[in-house]
Specification:
mainly beta; Thrombin, subunit H
């Protein structure tokens, strides 16, 4: 699901230097995420990092890293290792669920309560 959320990535970079950087997601799923904005340090495939979102923390494995100078520079694909189902603090569709996107669900919930209308 396409969703931009602020997250902090913590761990060690490819040269074993401390990694603690504010970044953001581009896509999220129960199984992992694609992040962007990792420019200060270099990640490598197989690295284990911690993502922090609000008061939640979970470990992820780096499964791909965007090449420097490419359209994916600063991006990385992360596989969730121990993230709880509520890590993103959003309703997530389960695999194979063709339900409406989160934004549509939220709008419909507000409309049902009489608090929102389309503009």
């Amino acid at each position: 699901m396409v969703m931009v959320l602020g997250v902090r990535i913590v761990g060690q970079d490819s040269e074993s230097r401390e990694l603690d950087e504010l970044t953001h997601t581009l896509d999220i799923a129960l199984e992992g995420t694609r992040i962007a904005g990792v420019y200060k340090r270099t990640l490598r495939v197989g690295d284990i990092v911690e993502l922090r979102r609000k008061h939640r923390r979970a470990h992820f494995r780096v499964v791909w890293v965007g090449a420097r100078g490419s359209g994916k520079d600063g991006q990385a694909g992360l596989q969730a290792l121990d993230a709880p189902a509520d890590f993103w603090d959003l309703p997530m569709p389960i695999q194979g669920d063709l339900s409406l996107p989160v934004t549509a669900q939220l709008f419909m919930a507000e409309e049902t309560c009489g608090e929102a209308s389309p503009k």
